[in-house]
Amino acid sequence: MNLTEWARAQSIHVTTAYRWYREGNLPVPARKAGRLILVSPDAAVAPSPAGRADLYARVSSHDQKADLDRQVARLTTWAADAGGQVTLGERAPFGSLVDVTASGFLDRQSLIRRSGSTRFVLWPRRTASGIDENYTMVLVYTSGGVESPSPGTSPLRRLRLGTTQVSLVPSPEIQQDGQAREAHEAAVATLNAAVAGRVVYAVAPSRPQTGIAFDTRVDPKEGLCASDSRVLAFTSLTLQSSEIVGGELVFCGLSSARTSTVTHELGHTFGLQHSPDERDLMSAVYQPGFSRTAFSASETLTMSLMMERRGGNRFPDNDRDLPATATSTLTIVCR
Ligand SMILES: [Zn+2]
After folding, report:
1. How far is the CA of 266 from the centre of ligand 1 (A)?
2. In a structure prediction context, what are the per-residue pLDDT tens digits for the chain, which is 335 residues long?
3. Among 22, 136, 247, 326, which is most exposed with the fewest C-beta within 10 angstroms?
4. 332 C-alpha vs ligand 1 centroid, how far in Å?
5. CA of 265 relative to ligand 1 center, distance in Å
6. How far apart are the CA of 264 and the centre of ligand 1, in A?
7. How far is the CA of 75 from the centre of ligand 1 (A)?
């Protein structure tokens, strides 16, 4: 089939599929034939015979002892596509445990939280664009940056489920500075492009009554700025459990508020940590002169996969236990 047909079959926007193809993120083999891009979704596939399982999906009752016969019967009701999207063909009872193992994807452990929820998007183990397990651990499941002694141990943090609008509210100083104002507008546009409109960021002159907002300001005297001259900026996230509900961006000097550092900080407001790939916009260390104004293919795909998950998801891909915790603050320092 061609790429357009494949995208339609997967309920993926055709533009998105073409972008994935260009960026090397298409999760299925594809080749160019004249003006067509042909996709081979055979890697796909529905449940394979046991023994050489490409995909193994299991639903078991939360409160009953696993009934092997019933599990085997349920296996036949699964279907998976090549993009790692698994759809349950039959309604599973609320609270059923879900376990999906597929070659090329991280093991998914979840449970049915809504009676109608039958769709799970698997996280690729690696992509041609450079995602691998370490990349995912460091960019998503870390606190403390790339120096973190224990990548992979923090929960996934993301904007509150259901968020569609986020406001960026610059201080009067930033609003009056043409270049800083422009950098804020560029940051918002870059992030909106990366998430393909599923969340829309906007620069706002004042805090809206409702919705998620991040203040931005310049403050060289802030402790984190004053104590280390290498610090360019930091983002403080307000978290409820592992959902981001607001926060602020502090630039240590007006010059940082005029560059793509603003876009980098916006990546933190979305829930991205620091990337181990120096070419990424979310790289821990800003390299002046190195034009990194857009999110990479790997970052973009990661953002899309994050939106398919709940805050509190644990590496490799487990959201069965999402403990509710009090409001907390996470500060990410950027050099
Ligand atoms: Zn940073």
Report:
1. 9
2. 788 887 776 656 788 778 778 877 666 667 777 766 665 543 333 333 332 234 556 666 554 444 433 443 343 344 555 567 777 666 666 777 777 877 788 988 888 887 666 778 889 999 888 999 999 999 999 986 556 678 899 999 999 999 999 999 999 999 999 999 999 999 999 999 999 989 999 999 999 988 899 999 999 999 999 999 999 999 999 999 999 999 999 999 999 999 999 999 999 999 999 999 988 999 987 776 666 789 999 999 999 999 999 999 999 999 988 988 889 999 999 98
3. 326
4. 6
5. 6
6. 6
7. 43
